[in-house]
Specification:
Number of domains: 1
CATH topology: Rossmann fold
Number of strands: 6
Distance between the termini: 10 Å
CATH class: Alpha Beta
Strand content: 15-25%
Shape: globular
CATH superfamily: Flavodoxin domain
Order of helices and strands: EHEEHEHEEH
Length: 151
């Protein structure tokens, strides 16, 4: 059974909730095993133990937070050939720049990772703290189900 690692960074808990909802969707399919970890508790080499990597970040100035950027940069030194990948973000406005920037970095700097689905952008109410807009967690679960079908 394929193994999936979901790595995220979250300040207010919204990105963590989305990561957990994606994992729930994957688990419901019973087609993959999934582990959810905060990026601060994850060594880049751990990715080698998984078949797929899903990375999530809140939008920070139109891109991923520094911790996620640094994690992706460290992955450049590891041979990730034959690994599947997807990304997600949380944001306050209709803004998918963070997802697009993470996907671009993977395409350009991590050619061993194959993006298997368009990124998920989950919206939060207000400017920072949220909560998530109604329906976003259900959307995240479907995203997880979709990923499990493609790995």
């Amino acid at each position: 059974m394929p193994k999936v690692l979901i790595v995220y960074w979250s300040k207010y808990g919204n990105t963590k909730q989305v990561a957990e909802a994606i994992a729930k969707g994957i688990n419901e399919t019973k087609k993959a095993e999934v582990v959810v970890k905060n990026v601060k508790d994850t060594k880049p080499e751990e990715v080698l133990n998984y078949d797929a990597l899903i990375i999530g970040s809140p939008n920070h100035g139109g891109g991923p937070v520094g911790e996620i950027k640094n994690f992706l940069k460290k992955l450049e030194k590891i041979n990730l050939k034959e690994k599947s990948a997807a990304v997600f973000d949380t944001h306050a406005r209709d803004d998918i720049k963070t997802v697009q920037k993470m996907e671009k970095q993977i395409r350009e700097k991590l050619p061993g990772l194959k993006l298997v689905a368009p990124g998920l952008a989950a919206q939060v109410k207000g400017l920072l703290k949220g909560p998530l807009v109604e329906g976003e967690l259900a959307k995240a679960e479907e995203f997880g189900k979709n990923i499990s079908q493609k790995i």
